[in-house]
Specification:
The protein is an all-alpha fold and about 45 residues long. It has one domain. About 50% of the residues lie in helices and about 0% in strands. The protein starts with 6 loop residues before the first helix and ends with a helix.
Length: about 45
């Protein structure tokens, strides 16, 4: 997610993934405020 305010929308996605036993992780990484962190996460 790009910010904490995205969580209400993303929560439904995590529930669907969990229902089908699809592994996932949840985190907040802003490509605009922390581009280096985003690049590290993407790699």
């Amino acid at each position: 997610m790009g910010s904490d305010s995205d969580w209400p929308v993303m929560r439904a996605a995590t529930e669907a993934l969990a229902e089908f036993d699809v592994p996932f992780e949840v985190g907040v990484v802003s490509a605009h405020r922390t581009p280096q962190r985003m690049l590290e996460y993407a790699n």
